[in-house]
Amino acid sequence: MLKTRVIPTLLWKDFGLVKGKGFDSWRRVGTVLPAIKVYNTRDVDELILLDITATAQEREPDYEAIRDFTAECSVPLTLGGGVNDLEVIRKLLYSGADKVAINSAAYARPQLITEAAQRFGSQCVVVSIDARRDAHGRYRCYRCCGQEDTGRELVAWAMEVESLGAGEILLTSIERDGSLQGYDVGMIRQVARAVNIPVIAAGGAGEASHFHQALVQGGANAVAAASVFHFTELTPEEVKQYLRERGIAVRNTLQRDAA
Amino acid sequence: MKVAILDYGMGNLGSVTRALEDCGAEVVLCTEGAALEGIGKVVLPGVGAFADGMAALRQRGLDRALGEYVAAGRGELLGICLGMQLLADWGLEGERTAGLGLIAGEVIRLQPGAGERVPHVGWNCVQRLSDDPLWQGIAEGTDFYFVHSYHFAVTRQKQAIARTPYCGEVISAVRSGRVYGVQFHPEKSSFPGRRLLQNFLSL
After folding, report:
1. Chain B within 8 Å of A167 (Cβ-Cβ)?
2. What is the mean pLDDT of chain B?
């Protein structure tokens, strides 16, 4: 059967990896290439790498660096940041990305999702949605690394991106991001119920039980996390072991010689 | 060992190239049929839509070149993901489009059952339907990485060499003579994927 994925997320800023809280207060946590090598050796299910300054700096992704990263990665890799037209997507896929994550550009031009899905297939189009609650407790979507309120309501936008051709949704809670306090299960549940494409939950994981909550109570299809893997002892494999013991189908990590 | 990867503008050649090089192959990217001369292993990768894939192959004359390569028995062919689907007679993604017609069947959309979502994304088990050298050294039921919304409905059950339980059943590998196709991505399936590619190179 289809296995539930546990996905480490790497945030790439300038020359290194960072991790923040609430999309702010970035801390340096190392460099990209060694991190990818480690996760690849540990045989993680998948990796997400987001260039968090590409959009703000109005530049294209650094394809040369990306080719170096993908060369070291034998598991699926999603690339995000600065994905704002078909040519960028083509170059990312050509540089070895398996999927691309579109975020800010999708609000300005939702048709980009459709064009990308038609040209490259919806299976490689991940729409990344960053959301937080407003004063009335309703979830709204933010763009540009959580800086700009798009005025879009979360569930409506999630349904729209599905109808436009998105293959997956990467859903991040801005409030929970970096908090280690647990996923926003209510937010995940709203989106998971509203769409029929896979939903990857992100933002807030701090211990193994949080992943379980996002899957079982939230209905997420995959779980992504960053801080918990950077700042605590917990590894993706330990999370999978926890899930396995509770009856969730996860992939067995393979040893090189057993393959 | 020289391996030709067909480069027709559909997808992530980087991963496939790297994976084959890891397996010791010397990779040649082919954008035209003439480049297949003297080659005994061909890989047809690809992500994207069926109709676009066929149009891109035709535009470069690669459809005919592949047909001749297979008909003359010059070597093995491995289609990956969309590349496997293009081996079929017909694709029903968007408008009905003729495929390469190298393995009998049609490519149709996945119909999700209760609790299932489409695309089929992630690691899922590959259960073999026949003993094939492609599976050498790979444990039965090993997980490989899938990402697709359409699947290959084979006409001749014998040409299905592996299945994967999802949306009922997905035929996850096909074979007709020296033509192979896998729906999953061996180049993204970690160690088992590398082993499968090595097995292909050893055919």
Report:
1. yes
2. 95
Residue B187 catalytic? yes
B81 is an active site residue: yes
What is the reported pLDDT for A258? 41
Residue B28 has pLDDT above 60, yes or no: yes
B61 touches chain A (CB under 8 A): no
- Which pLDDT score, from 0 to 100, does residue A32 have? 93
Longest dimension (CA), chain A: 55
Give me the residues of A, 125-164, that contact B with CB < 8 A.
Answer: none
Low-confidence ranges of chain A (pLDDT < 70): 254-259
Nearest to B152 by CA among B81, B97, B60: B81
Interface of A with B in 49-68 (CB under 8 A): 67
The helix/strand/coil state of B114 is coil
Which residues of chain B neighbour A125 with C-beta distances below 8 Å? none
pLDDT at B182: 98
Q: What pTM was estimated for this model as a whole?
A: 0.94
- Domain of A116? 5-258
126-185 in chain B: CB under 8 A from chain A: 137-139, 142-143, 145-149, 165-166, 185
Q: How far is Cα B162 from Cα B165, in angstroms, rounded to an integer?
A: 10
Per-residue pLDDT tens over the stretch B125-144 = 999 999 999 999 999 999 99
Helix H or strand E segment including B199: helix B190-202
Of the candidates B30, B81, B148, B151, the residue annotated as catalytic is B81
Q: Considering CB atoms only, which of B11, B82, B122 is closest to A93?
A: B11
**Is B120 an active-site residue?**
no
- Secondary-structure percent of chain A, ordered helix, strand, coil, rounded to 5: 35, 25, 35
State the CATH number of the domain containing residue A113.
3.20.20.70
With CB atoms and an 8 Å threshold, state whether A1 touches B117: no
d(CA A15, CA A110): 31
Please tell me the total count of domains within chain A: 1
Contact present, A106 and A113 (Cβ < 8 Å) = yes
